[in-house]
Amino acid sequence: MDTSIEQQIKAIEDEIFKTQKNKATEHHIGKLKAKIARLRELSEKRKSTKRKAKGFSVRKSGDVTVGIVGFPSVGKSTLLNQLTAADSKVADYDFTTIMTIPGMMKYKGAEIQLLDLPGLIVGASKGRGRGREVISAVRNVDLLLLMIDAFNLQQLDQIELELYNAGVRLNQKKPDVVISKKSNGGITVNTTVPLTHLTEPVIKSIASEFVINADITLREDITEDQLIDTFAQNRVYISALVAINKTDLIPYEVLKTAVNKLHQKRWDVVGISAKNKDNLHQLKEQIFLHLRLIRIYMKPVGKKADYVQPMILREGQTVADACRHIHRDFYRNFRYASVWGPSAKHSGQKIGLEHVLKDQDVLTIVVTK
């Protein structure tokens, strides 16, 4: 980070720490937090203009991509080798993996690309180790598997903090806020729900760090940090799952207590032993569920459905998405489709492009010749 900007951020953080938090100071603290977010964003932009971040040149393949993130020597490489045909080097010393190793896991007809990323360390968000490259790769995956050591559960908080500081939001959705910039008139605030965390002065104070004139509409009850996120340009929202590794080395009751604590923090957790292949089937199932994948069995006109190689889509996708998945001409020349299965009101229901598909539907698409 730019030294002058880092000094400014440190000074603002010190001011926030010293400021007594109450109703009279909440708008001031909100403005300071927004200023920190803006400075961090400015620092990132300056770095990108000076030099392009190296990143990791891994070509995405398969239906979806999952990044395995964790501290050095937590067992990421062993897990990748057990779940895929990859050959990621494994050793008893830190930083064995110095580049991203891809592997392909096939499960329920889906091809799931797994990326064994170099070990994350404290300070990664500021560039320590290969932090910038790791986080750059993290921002482009469909799911994060956060791998922690059964003897060091605090690693999860550290990983989450590093990713948070780098603009990665885990298991959150983008706040429902509409920002419409305008040429004049200042900042106006509208709400469609009661707000319990923010007041209009606080909203305007935060917004003034990013915009001069804008209509801002909040359509859900959010916090000041979430409001700042809506203005920042570098936020990504990614689903995450936790794997506790080396569970074969701790008593079951200790593992049960640890899992319960993480569940209370709203983490979905799977305990595994990558070395002994313990519980890897449950891990595969949880990865599949968290990716929100659905299997669509295609049935050509007059032929049997293909139950061997399903089309893999995401929950909420439609017949239009299925058409585009095959070829854009299927979308252009679409006449109608027929569906059998969970999304059908009756067997062989005739449907259009907007029909939402469900897991294990059988689908026939008819196009004009």
What does this structure look like?
- The protein is an alpha/beta fold.
- The protein folds into 3 domains: 107 residues, no CATH class; 164 residues, Rossmann fold (3-Layer(aba) Sandwich); 74 residues, Beta-grasp domain (Ubiquitin-like (UB roll)), CATH 3.10.20.30.
- The chain has 11 helices and 15 strands.
- The protein is globular.
Features:
five-stranded mixed β-sheet, Rossmann fold, Ubiquitin-like (UB roll), 11 helices, alpha/beta, seven-stranded mixed β-sheet, 33% helix, single chain, 369 residues
How do you describe this structure in short?
With 369 residues, the protein is of the alpha/beta class. It is 33% helix and 23% strand. It is globular.
Q: What is the molecular shape?
A: globular
Computed structural class: alpha/beta
The low-confidence runs, each spanning 5 or more residues with pLDDT under 50, are none
Helix content: 25-40%
Mean pLDDT: 88
Indicate the CATH architecture of the largest domain.
3-Layer(aba) Sandwich
**Strand fraction:** 15-25%
Give the class-level CATH name of the largest domain. Answer: Alpha Beta
Count of β-strands = 15
What oligomeric arrangement do these chains adopt?
single chain
Radius of gyration from CA coordinates = 24 Å
What is the fold's blueprint, element by element?
Blueprint: H1 3-18, H2 26-50, E1 64-70, H3 76-83, E2 101-107, E3 110-116, H4 131-138, E4 143-149, H5 155-165, E5 168-170, E6 177-181, E7 187-191, H6 200-207, E8 214-218, H7 224-231, E9 236-245, H8 252-264, E10 269-271, H9 280-290, E11 293-298, E12 311-314, H10 319-326, H11 328-332, E13 334-340, E14 349-351, E15 361-367
Parallel strand pairs: 1-3, 1-4, 4-9, 5-9, 7-8, 9-10, 11-15
Antiparallel strand pairs: 2-3, 6-8, 11-12, 13-14, 13-15
Helix pairs in contact: 1-2, 2-6, 2-7, 6-7
